[in-house]
Write a structure and sequence with these properties.
With 306 residues, the chain is an alpha+beta fold. The chain contains six helices and 19 strands. The radius of gyration is 21 Å and the shape is globular.
Length: 306
């Protein structure tokens, strides 16, 4: 949704700063504000195509580490593999998710026992059960509502998944669907939760969770199993990250106990161009600009939430 007052607000911002004489330098030219896509309360979520496990990361729910990674730990004992619940031999066990944002990119790491290409020889229609898509909700809406109006972003990162997205990449204006039926999976989150606590479950050790969210969270409709892109607009490629790439980015490869670290990054400019980013002044930016800039960023945030 456009807002004709935005250019005027930016002009007033600059004029007011100069008029008040609030520019404070540190011997260097003041830096321009950066745009931050992931802000407090935003949610990223992913699950297996069969919904045999899943997790969510809530931005700023947990503190960043020394290299600016935010981490979400999922229960290590809530993956469903037939009658096996949890454990190192459970092919669908998800251990955690990590996210890092830089000036230009968003980095994501998923840690679990399932490889990027999924598990072969399963009860799925194509005999392969793999990863669903990664959803990114930058609005104040619950997941189902944001999906119904196409307010989600999402990443298809598995090349052979059952995603409705035509190719691997970042998508905007996303709606979600379920692919659990064709993957011999659970028809709802409620069914998954019930299975965890009834199938060979050791009481107290295999209670279901969804990362930063409780298993029974109202953020998801418990009667649904949305885990794949139904429709969306392709806006960017993703770049897969090797172990050495992740180490360079400051990621601890042993952060979680899963057999695989699936890492990738994507350019966030397509998100910011759609006014889903907040303006964040750099430390050396002017005092007045930092103050008034909060008003400007708030205007952007309000505009996209209408």
């Amino acid at each position: 949704m456009s807002n004709s007052n935005t250019p005027l607000l930016a002009t007033k911002l600059i004029s007011l700063t100069a008029a008040l004489g609030l520019i404070v330098t540190t011997g260097e030219a003041a830096k321009a504000a950066t745009l931050r896509a992931l802000n407090e309360g935003d949610i990223l979520n992913v699950s297996a195509e069969c919904l045999n496990d899943g997790g969510a990361l809530v931005i700023e729910e947990n503190p960043k580490d020394d290299y600016d990674w935010q981490n979400s730990e999922d229960s290590p004992n809530d993956g469903v593999d037939g009658d096996i619940i949890g454990g190192k031999d459970n092919r669908y066990e998800l251990y955690g998710m990590s996210v890092k944002e830089t000036v230009d990119s968003i980095f994501v790491v998923l840690n679990g026992n399932m490889p990027l290409t999924g598990v072969e020889g399963t009860g799925a229609d194509d005999r392969n059960t793999g990863w669903g898509d990664l959803f990114i909700n930058l609005t104040d809406q619950d997941f189902t509502t944001a999906s119904e109006v196409g307010d989600l972003f999402a990443v298809r990162f598995s090349p052979n998944s059952d995603s409705g997205a035509p190719k691997v990449g970042l998508y905007a204006n996303v709606t979600a669907k379920s692919v659990t039926k064709e993957n011999n999976g659970f028809g709802s989150l409620e069914a998954y939760n019930n299975a965890v606590v009834t199938r060979n479950c050791i009481p107290g050790l295999c209670e279901p969770s969804f990362g930063d969210l409780p298993a029974t969270t109202t953020y998801f409709d418990q009667g649904q199993s949305l885990n794949s892109i139904a429709s969306g607009e392709f806006i960017a490629d993703i770049i897969y990250l090797s172990d050495s790439d992740l180490i360079t980015a400051g990621y601890d490869l042993d952060k979680f106990d899963g057999n695989y670290n699936i890492g990738f990054k994507f350019d966030k400019s397509g998100i910011c161009e759609r006014d889903y980013c907040e303006s964040v002044p750099e430390p050396s930016t002017v005092f007045g600009l930092a103050t008034v800039g909060l008003i400007f960023s708030s205007q952007i945030r309000k505009r996209r939430r209408m």
